[in-house]
Design a protein that fits this description.
Length: about 130
C-alpha cells in the first residue's frame, strides 16, 4: 500500500484504536472480506488558544480487528472519541475508495464545552481483485 505521508513527528501523541470492543467486532477479513487494506490519515484538532494538532496514520489489515474507534486526546473527556466504524462499513458497501470528512467529539468535559475537539480524516480502502 502506498504511503507517501511518511513524515515522523516526535511531538505526535499516539492515537490508538481502542482495545475495548475489538474482539466483539471480529476481524476485517470476516466482516469486510472484499477489503485488502485500509489506511486512515487523521489530524486531530483541539479547541483553545493554541490548538494542539496531532497527525496519525492508522494501517488496517485483513487480520486487524474491524473496530475503528479512536479516543479523544483529552483525558477527562467522558464518553467522547471518534468512531470511523460506520464510515468504513458504508464505504465498503459501495466499494468506495476514498472519503474525507470531519468528526467532532461530543464527549463531556467539566470546564470545556462539547465540540472541544475534532478530527479530519481521510480513509483509503483497497479492495481485492474480483
Ligand atoms: Zn472529547
Amino acid at each position: 500500500m502506498a504511503n507517501r505521508h511518511h513524515h515522523r513527528n516526535n511531538h505526535v501523541v499516539r492515537m490508538e484504536l481502542k482495545k475495548q470492543g475489538n474482539i466483539a467486532a471480529g476481524l476485517v477479513s470476516d466482516r469486510f472480506p472484499t477489503v485488502s487494506g485500509i489506511v486512515i490519515h487523521m489530524t486531530y484538532y483541539r479547541k483553545g488558544a493554541i490548538p494542539v494538532l496531532m497527525v496519525r496514520t492508522i494501517n488496517i489489515y485483513p487480520t486487524s480487528y474491524a473496530y475503528f474507534k479512536i479516543d479523544c486526546m483529552i483525558k477527562s473527556c467522558d464518553g467522547g472519541g471518534f468512531d470511523l466504524t460506520s464510515i468504513v462499513a458504508n464505504m465498503v458497501k459501495t466499494r468506495e475508495r476514498l472519503r474525507k470528512g470531519t468528526l467532532v467529539c461530543h464527549g463531556n468535559i467539566d470546564v470545556i464545552s462539547s465540540e472541544h475537539a475534532s478530527v479530519e480524516y481521510e480513509a483509503v480502502i483497497q479492495y481485492k481483485r474480483l
